[in-house]
Amino acid sequence: MDSVYEKDYGAFKDFLESQNAEFNYELIRKAYEFCVTMHKGQLRRSNEEYYIHPVCVAKIVAQLGLDSESVCAALLHDTVEDTDTTLEDIEKLFGDEVALIVDGVTKIGRLSFVSKEEQQAESIRKMLIAMGKDIRVIIIKLADRLHNMRTIDFMPQQKRRDKALETLEVYAPIAHRLGIRPIKEELEDISIACLDPIAYEEIEGLLNENFKDSSRMLDTVKDRITERLKEEMPDVKTEFQSRVKSINGIYRKMFIQGRAFEEIYDIYAVRIITDTVANCYNILGIMHDLFRPIPNRFKDYISTPKPNLYQSLHTTVIGREGVPFEIQIRTFEMHETAEYGIAAHWKYKVGVSGSDKGMEQQLAWIRQILDTQNDTGDASEIIRSIKVDLAQDDVFAVTPRGDVINLPVGATVVDFAFAIHSAVGIKMVGAKVDGRIVPINHVIKTGEIIEILTTNQAGHGPSRDWINIAVTNQAKSKIRSWFKKEKRSENIENGKIEIEREFKRNGIVFENEASLKEFLTDIAKRQHLENIDELYAAIGYGGVVLARILPSIKDNYNRISKQNKVIVTTPEITPHRRTKANDGVIVEGIDNCLIKFSKCCAPLPGDDIIGFITRGHGVSIHKCDCINVPKNIDDSPEPARWINAYWADNLPSTFMASLQITAIDRQGLILDISQTLINMRVALHSINAHPTKKGNSLTVITVSTEGVEHLKNIITRLEKIHGVYSVERLNK
User: Fold this and answer.
1) What phi and psi values does residue 634 have, to the nearest 5 degrees?
2) β-pair partners for 613
3) 634 an active-site residue?
4) 477-521 per-position pLDDT tens digit
5) Torsion-angle region of residue 384: left (phi > 0), alpha (psi -120 to 50) or beta?
6) Average pLDDT of the chain?
7) Is residue 617 within 8 Å of 596, Cβ to Cβ?
8) 3-class DSSP state for residue 572?
9) Phi first, then psi: what are they for 462, rounded to 5°?
10) CA 41 → CA 33, 37, 58, distances in Å?
11) Which is the catalytic residue, given 33, 49, 81, 371?
12) Residue 255 carries which DSSP code?
């Protein structure tokens, strides 16, 4: 090894020794040397040598208290993906344990996927499966993502935004569920800085502006607490910390919940760490005597821990300065769990062998997410599960027996029933909240006592509408499983009807039955289903959501149509002279004609269009796949009146488009829709909402849009609103 390597490894070894942990330095040195050798000549976007990245990841892993095998895997985590190294090489040189972790961290990149989103979902699925075998996989992956985010400024702008969004939606929630607070907060803050830099700078400015006053105030508060505890509890061991809320935490309250900076009461907090649970409650009483508590701002996470095992007492009080602040009280053991989560209980560090029931229970959510994906056959369901089931905000409801059930915010009594047991959910006929009968779509609030009413009637089961009412993927999965098992023939019939309806609506037409069967068989294979009946059944019970896979179906259909003209007859129009544009549209052979956009399909820039010469009203512009456009123009009653039309380069700035939003009928839905459009700077021209049966609502809005791609972005943002099931363009 050269002198530069020796110097670098020496610094790395010094860092490991500073962690006060026992490491196998011989194995780590071997991994370090292998990492440097295999990545030699490779550079990062920052022009620094590539091996620096895995070394930094290994440092983060060591700081979290993981073992020698974890540090080695961190050093080697990119060798299989980015060099000629194979897993067999890793296994031979460093053992099965290190090879297993490296394989779990390695992304899926050498297989063929329909879309980048599918590849992302499959990589996350692989990672979760590996997590089930060894939790160190995700901890190293989080460390890897953290260092990549720290150097994200060197990425192109769009890739930077994509990575930040993925981090915020996937990796930060996983870090939260594992309880690794420092990584979670840093990932979130860097992501917000990329996605909304203006808001980030505004919050950062407010914090800096108030730093001196708040720092002085917190020092005064700690002095008062220290003095009082010495008087009241002189023999009790205590430590004090102060913390400022993360920028993402403030962002969520300011820009999502709409609060002013001054209305956020837990920006500043004092942490009191003591030795026993009893002392935690004793100190709480002293704090409420020393400061004035704010009503309804007390949370007891000791008696009711969060899903990530976080425990602490939180109370918000007002000091002499009139500034509200939070006091957190916990034991030393609780503090370790709050800071490092599952890494604080690392069984490998202390040589624990065999099954660990506590760890298995904490990681049960991984199995639930994978079970949901297996039921649907849709890999992207994993990402949706992470967004919902690992949400940071939870509600706590109580059974009549006093058991506490925690669920994500927005969960309904359907979710509550299935969280108790699948048999309870299947037999549910109604629910009582605090002794009062409520509808099935009742949204749960913290502290409610919920009683599920069941029946023993044979053949009773859930309603299909419950899939739309349920929020958690656990409940959705169990409902789908019941329909999959109990209603196969009905599912096949419903699925067949839905496919026929959607194919007809989207102009997907085949010349003969054999071509249709071949096309449907290909769809079934893509969804990992054995045959067409399995595809029909999956659509029928909701395992495959046709609306989600329809874009790829249409792309595949268009590709086949171009390759094989026998499948569908494409309208051929006698070519005309292409002339000047009117209202953003060029009509071949006609100058200065009146242009009218048909209401039956409402075409937008980006749609394939065709013109129809009307009597006295100019040329009516339709989408080529409009139901009023003949499939074969030559065989239509008046073929000469159909004429080629194109979008011009000098398009008008905006067009009108209507969208239909199906969602849970909840308070604040219209406000959320309006706020989303305002944030996107989209003009809203009209909005019409009305409730439907079974607790849902139908909202029709008309907006200004710049074209098809812009409209797709609007739809994507609206679909992310809590409680929204679907957003569809009208007059398609």
Assistant:
1) -60, -30
2) 619
3) no
4) 788 778 777 777 777 888 888 888 888 877 888 877 888 888 888
5) alpha
6) 80
7) yes
8) coil
9) -70, 165
10) 14, 9, 20
11) 81
12) I
Most confident of 70-79, 483-492, 524-533: 70-79
Q: How far apart are CA 705 and CA 170, in angstroms?
A: 30
- Strand-by-strand arrangement of the 724-729 sheet: 684-691, 696-705, 655-664, 724-729
DSSP tag of 43: B
- Among this protein's residues, is 81 annotated catalytic? yes
Residue 48: pLDDT above 80? yes
Q: Helix axis angle, 413-420 relative to 473-486, nearest 10°?
A: 70
Is the pTM higher than 0.85? The answer reads no
Question: How far is it, in rounded angstroms, from Cα 212 to Cα 574?
Answer: 76
* Tokens describing residue 327: 């006091």
Cβ–Cβ < 8 Å for 428, 453: yes
Q: Is residue 382 within 8 Å of residue 117, measured between CB atoms? A: no
pLDDT tens readout for residues 634-660: 777 777 788 888 877 666 657 778 888
Specify whether the CB–CB gap between 566 and 668 falls below 8 A. no
Nearest alpha-carbon partner for 392 in 252, 554, 236, 583? 252
- Which structure tokens are listed for 183? 């990584």
Alpha helices in 642-684 (DSSP H): 669-679
pLDDT tens-digit series, residues 260-283: 888 888 888 899 999 999 999 999
Structure tokens that stand for 243 in this block: 């913390």
Token pair of 501, please?
A: 């309806």
Catalytic residue among 82, 166, 336, 625: 82
Q: How far apart are CA 230 and CA 587, in angstroms?
A: 87
Mean per-residue pLDDT, 275-292: 93
And the tokens for 300?
Answer: 């007891």
CB 679 within 8 A of CB 685: no
Average pLDDT over residues 541-545: 75
At 599, give phi and psi (nearest 5°): -80, -20
